[in-house]
Amino acid sequence: MIKLFPKCLTILCLIFLGCSSKKSSKLELMDIFSNGMVLQQKSKSKIWGKSSPNSSINIEGTWGIKLSIESDQYGNWITELNTPEAGGPYSLRITSGITEKVISDILFGEVWFASGQSNMEMTLEGYLPNEPIDNGEDEILNSLNNNIRMFTVTNNVTLSKINNAKGSWLKSNPKNSRYFSATAYFFAKKIQKELNIPVGIISSSWGGTPAESWVSEEKLRTIRDFDNKIDEMHNKYKYLNNSPIPLNKYRGNVLDADPKECCLSLPVVLYNSMVNPFTNYKIAGVIWYQGESNVPKPKQYRKLFPLLINDWRDKWGYNFPFYFVQLAPYKYDGQSKNKLAELRDAQRATLELSKTAMVVTLDNTKNFHLIHPTNKSIVGLRLANIALNRNYNKDIIDSGPLFKKMEIINNKVIIEFKHVGSGLTKKGNKLFGFEIAGADIKFQEAKAKINRDKVIVWNNKILKPKFVRYGWKDTSTASLFNMEGLPASSFQTE
Q1: Burial of 234 per CB tally in 10 Å (0-12, 13-18, 19+)
Q2: Which class does domain 27-109 fall in?
Q3: pLDDT tens string 235-274
Q4: Cα distances (angstroms) measured from residue 281 to each of 8, 74, 80, 138, 318
Q5: How many CB atoms lie within 10 A of CB 36?
Q6: Residue partners of 72: CB distance under 8 A and separation at least 6
Q7: Is 157 exposed, middle or buried (0-12, 13-18, 19+ CB in 10 A)?
Q8: How does pLDDT run across 403-459, given as a tens digit for each residue?
Q9: Which residues contact 349 (CB under 8 A, 6 or more apart)?
Q10: What is the distance between the alpha carbons of residues 293 and 429, in angstroms, rounded to a whole number?
Q11: Which of 184, 199, 222, 484 is a Cys-bridge partner for 192, taking CB atoms 3.0 to 4.6 Å apart?
Q12: Taking residues 392-396, what's their average pLDDT?
């Protein structure tokens, strides 16, 4: 045995040296880079991950790409992949040392990011048992489509930014679509059908969350409204650092909750955990459905919502389209009068930003006590028509009438609109929802009639009118449409 030892040692050394020609290296990818993923077509799509510090990473894709990079001193790496036109499936092989990751069934197509609160989060089956999606079960049964891929971000809250969000890519089928965002699904379904290419849709939503939770700390501090709350949050929960904050069902003021638990009203925390991980992922645009949690402070929302949009565009590094849903009628018991109407007008004002568009839903309600309209098909369809027109050059009327300007002639106000389509029309026997006021700003119900592409508004008791508003109640429904069936947005003249 002793005589054999040197020979055995020599053999072992040779084996070791042979194996060490390629060092073992850890290799981690973010969850978004997984089997079945969709990458934005005809773009430079980034891919990133972690490896051993200062290690080589080799990347090879079956669509004809091959490149090598090195990780930094912390093991982080990121690079760009040139993506072809829509199609697939392809695969991607990533190696570091002797460690290998293979991503299969990759499609190239159009990738959209869907976000917001409960109306965006609401799944294709609905909120059972009381709020099923209209025709939801039929849609689920007929949802088999290999060219629609869905990624639902696992709900998470962190005090600091993280780089990975849990989730997985799933093909559209009855098993998977049931638990995916209904609005996002209907949007993707229409886009895929019209373009006949793969569509990837990432749903990052959480019910009951205010807009400030979805904005980065550095951007949110620019308006100063939330400085105290941010500082208090960091002081109270600093021991958590980057760890997920434990959650319970508590939905009140987080700073009064158990110190080991917190809720979703905290500023910046959802940006940190559910948006930041995707800011390097190439997308075609964003669809957004949120605002209910900000109804108590509509004036603040006028600066908060544009801030969020600009924040996301800054973080992604380009001015992508941002399409959003204006809230439907709802009776907010116990709240100040017309706060929802003011919030809707804050949403309308956000259209001043470039590459934005808004879906009006004043016609999408069955019950003023139902905060989740169950007809999500019409919402997703209208969002999709905006994208098809503005992103993909389809000739579609994608907006209802929007207030443009007013002219006062004697005791009448002539309202001119944008997006009249084939012309203005009314629902039912007469126009309703218009109010008029003089310099005293005491609004009274007004008569209104359509004159070609304009609306004439008056009240014989108000001889010197100065202001007009439409749909200015929380429970206002639509009476003014264009010929394409799209409702006019509520508005108030300055």
Answers
A1: middle
A2: mainly beta
A3: 877 655 555 655 544 343 444 444 444 567 889 999 999 9
A4: 52, 21, 10, 33, 12
A5: 19
A6: 53, 54
A7: buried
A8: 999 999 999 999 999 999 999 999 888 999 999 999 999 999 999 999 989 999 999
A9: 302
A10: 35
A11: 199
A12: 97
Find tokens 């962190």 and name the residue: 158
Tokens of 3: 């005589």
Locate 33 and state its tokens: 């880079």
In the chain, the amino acid numbered 78 is I
Total residue count of the chain as it appears in this document:
494
pLDDT of residue 38: 98
Mean pLDDT over all residues of the chain?
A: 91
| Chain center to CA of 368 | 25
Taking the C-alpha atoms of residue 152 and residue 7, their distance in angstroms, rounded to an integer, is: 57
Residue 121 has pLDDT above 90, yes or no: yes
Q: Domain 111-390 classified CATH 3.40.50.1110?
A: yes
Q: What is the pLDDT of residue 437?
A: 97
List the end-to-end C-alpha distance of the chain, in Å, as a whole number.
98
Helix axes 182-195, 376-390, angle to 10 degrees: 40
| Residue 242 amino acid letter | N
pLDDT grade, residue 23 (50/70/90)?
Answer: low
Res. 3: pLDDT tops 80: no
- Cβ contact 436:457 at 8 Å: yes
- CB of 69 closer than 8 Å to CB of 57: yes
C-beta atoms surrounding 486 within 10 Å = 21
Pair of tokens at residue 494: 């300055």
